[in-house]
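User: Fold this, then the next.

Assistant: Folding the first:
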Amino acid sequence: MATPAPRPVEIAGARCRVRDIRPEDATALLDLRVRNREFLRAFEPVPSPDHFELAKQATAIDLGNRGWDDDAACAPRPSAWWSGSRSTAWPCTASRPP
């Protein structure tokens, strides 16, 4: 199994830059989620009551980064997406809090 690239990760081209999400991005992530709340409602599970709070977004970034660092982050199983099943799309629990 390949080891993940060490953070920070950044890939830049002539017209696009992609980088890992960082703790200082929590405010921007919260703003993005709040502005797109209605649109994303059809595609995401029902959020917890504290989902739209800055601390929750910071925790999500931290958990995702720990999953990356520990090489425990997961991708969805293609069969779950093809079948339209949202309950089995993310089988990995490595990046979730205990």
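Now the next one, as you asked:
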Amino acid sequence: MITQESDYRTSFRRYLAILVAAIGLSFCISTTSLAQASGSIAGTVIDEQGGKIPGADLRLRSRGGAQFSTITDQNGSFAFKNLKPGAYLGNWDTATGG
């Protein structure tokens, strides 16, 4: 009887240790994935009359100095993807000097 109770306690402790380790590991994985969040900025460049502007050169610069650029498509649409959270300064230029 004593050995069965001892085996039961050992098995229970082992199960409990595995359960605690699994919960701890899942917590670490979930907080790490949250820390790697990224965002995007997308839109359409239009003029004062609402006309879409294709070929506009758009640039972003982060406070940390990272620079990104893109050109609007034929519909005036653009997207900056996989941006780290933070403040950005943007500017644009068109082929016509806008």
